[in-house]
Structures are given as structure tokens and as C-alpha cells.
Amino acid sequence: SIAIDGAVLKPGVYSVALGTPLREVMRKARPERFANLRGFNLDAPLDCDASFTLTVLEMLCIHVAGSVLQPCSLEVPAGTRVCQLKSRLSLLDSANKQFFKSRRLLKDGECIVVPSCAVPQK
Length: 122
What we know:
This protein is mainly beta. Helix content is 7%, strand content 25%. The protein is elongated and about 55 Å long.
């Protein structure tokens, strides 16, 4: 049996077969949006009883590439949106600034690729 509590919507004890990947049990417990899953190998098969307590991330690590002066990794507060990134990046002239109108929440470990504007055909 696997006990999961903390930053999950369905804390509890889950009975699963030996060899079940941790990812399947976590899916049942429904981690909250900013639950810290960094230290877990979600593909690892469970081979014994275990207990997990998930914490909430305060900072997210994101990776930025594409039409930026230099690809980089940034730490941003949990709850940061795509539209809030523009002021933190050095963009190339070709960067599509419309990309930063998105209000989508960022995810931990996400790779953001800033697109270029389409070059008009002659």
C-alpha cells in the first residue's frame, strides 16, 4: 500500500500491485497544480509499501529558447503566467511579441520557445 498526503486533492492510502509505476498512484492522488514532484522518479516501479508527502513549490524552473538573445533557465514564482515573462527576457528583433499575450500559467520544468514573426514573402 502507498500512502500519499500533502499537496494532493485526494490524500489517502492506495493499494496497488507490486511493480506499478509511481506515476499511476500519483495520478490517483491528483497532485495540486504546483505540487513538488521534482524528487520523484515517476516511472519507478513500486516494490514495497511507501509513504509520500508532497509539498507545494514556491518557485518554478522554466527553460526559455527560440527568439531570445540567449537561451536560459529562469526561476519564477509559482503562479507566473507567460505574459509576465516578456520583461525578464532579452528578445531578438524577430521575436513575435504577440506570444506574450498568453495568460496561461507556467508549469515547473517547462520549456518555452519564443516564436519568430513570419517573414513576409516577396
